[in-house]
Amino acid sequence: QVQLVESGGGLAQPGGSLRLSCAASGSIDAINVMGWYRQAPGKQRELVAVISRGYDSRNYGDSVKGRFTISRDNAKNSVSLQMNSLKPEDTAVYYCSATGIWFSDGPFDNQIYWGQGTQVSVSL
Length: 124
Fold this sequence. Notes:
Layout: E1 3-7, E2 10-12, E3 18-25, E4 28-39, E5 46-52, E6 58-60, E7 68-73, E8 78-83, E9 92-103, E10 109-114, E11 118-122
Parallel strand pairs: 2-11
Antiparallel strand pairs: 1-3, 3-8, 4-5, 4-9, 5-6, 7-8, 9-10, 9-11
C-alpha cells in the first residue's frame, strides 16, 4: 500500500510563488519516477513535471518551463515543486505521482500512484 500526501497548495497572486511538497509512505525501498500533474476544471489532467530517481532526467510541461522547478529527496521518498512567476492559468488541482516502485515486502510495481490532490489558485 502506497500513500502520497501533498502539501503547500493555496492562493497566490499573479507573479507570486508557491512550493508544493509530496511524501510517499508505505513499504517502499525506492521509487523510479516522481512527479506532478494538474487538472483544471473542464480540462484533462496534464503533465507539469517529472523527475527520475537518478536526478538525471527532468521533464516539464511546455507551459511551465522556465518557471517551475522539480526536485526530489530519495532518502525521504519525497518530491517538491517550486512554482515561480505564477499565472492565473496555473490554477488547478495539482496531483503528486509515483511510478515504478520497489517494495521491501513485494515485487516491483510499475503502475502509477496518485496523491489526493492540492488546490492551487492564482488570482488578484
